[in-house]
Structures are given as C-alpha cells and as structure tokens.
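user: can you give me the structure for this one chain? tokens are fine.
assistant: on it. calling the predictor now.
[tool input]
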Amino acid sequence: MGSSLAHAESLSGSITTPNGTPVCALVLASGKSTFSCNPVGQYSLTNLPTEPDGTIKLAVYADGFRPFAQRLTTFGEVPVVLTRQYDNGLSDLGPLDGVYTLLRTTVQANDGQLFDSFQPNIGASGTLTISGSRYDISITVSVNGQSTATTGGATIQSDSGSSLTFADDLGPVYDVALVERGRKLVIMSNLNIVGIAAIEANYWLRVSSPSASAFSASSFTEPAVPVMAGAAAGGALELLQ
C-alpha cells in the first residue's frame, strides 16, 4: 500500500467541459487533494509520491459530471475533460435512507489552506443517518490529539439526484452537491470559516439500510475514495472492498 517519496512528481492543468467551459471540481492524487475553483478550471498538486509501479492515480469529481479517474505514467501538465452526468450517471439514484460512517473529510479554503483527515496528526470520524426527509449528522475531528465534536440536523426539502436542498434545524436553507451516491456517498458543500470561503468534501460509507439493495455492488467502477498512499488509507480501502 505504501508509496515511495523518492519519486515526487507534480500535476497541474485545466479542468473543463468538452466545449472548454472551466469546471470547479475536487481533485485527488497520491493522498493529496485540491479544488479547481480559484481560479475556476485550474488545479495544481505538487510533491506527489508515485506508486511502486511508478504511476499516480488522478481522480476528479464535480457536481453534475461523471467522475474522472486515470492512472498516469507521465506527469506535469495533465488537462482533464469532464462529461455531463445523465439520468443513470450516478451509481445509485435510489433512496439515501441508511446509516453511514465517515471515511474522510477535506476542507479546501480559497486562500489555499487545506485540511485533510488523511494528513498526519489529523483525524475525523462520524455518523450520518438519513431516514426519509430527516438528515442527522455527528462528526468528531481531532488535530494533534485535541478533539472537537459537532452535531446537527436538517430536513431534506428536495433531492435532484446530484444535489440536495436542506432546511437546517437552526433555520437556514442551503444546497450540497452529491459527487457519488449509493453505498458510497460523497457530499460537497460551501463553507465560510471566519470570513474565508471554503469547500468541504465528506466521504461516507453506508453500513446499514432498510433496503437490502444498499449493499449491492455499485455500477460505478471507481471507488468514492480513490486509492491513497500510505498505511492511513488501508482501513478505508478495506471498508470499500
């Protein structure tokens, strides 16, 4: 599972639609992540360790588009073209009802700061329960041994398949994007942290459901959490098998 730092590479480039429109997307490679949102349609990742076979797996997710995944043998400038999601583009458009466990959380601020629970001395755990229109969440984040727990709830007002509209228990109405749904659920949302805009992505695995179909094999061939370097990824990857 480990990757060698002896061959650190960089990836950068554009993320667009086939007609050249720039896309704001989540980009992951070798355990690192960023967003192509500032400026829109451009990404850059540096100091990426290669896998033992000398490759790097690049994965890109954006609301309304098919997930992109490619194992690279050449690096540097790598443009990505995303195609639109269609009615059957997501692996499972059925009900979201069930209990989910948190595998990973990332927060990318517009000023370039990155929080990732796969980073050393950072961890995150949590539970998400969806029942009908009810959405309840509990997440605990630890940084350098100090833990902070948050809980919240909301009512799902609408489900478009690739996005949800919530009415928070405290009042605000807001939208989140579903990059992947089904047994594996990836949720992206906008944040404002002390005046700094950011994008949060949470990776969930459904561990129980009132429907047996919750545990059927996904038609999506790439996992919601791409293969990451290092032992920290091992537990998450085992859960996705």
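assistant: here you go. The chain has two domains: 4-81, 98-210. The radius of gyration is 17 Å.
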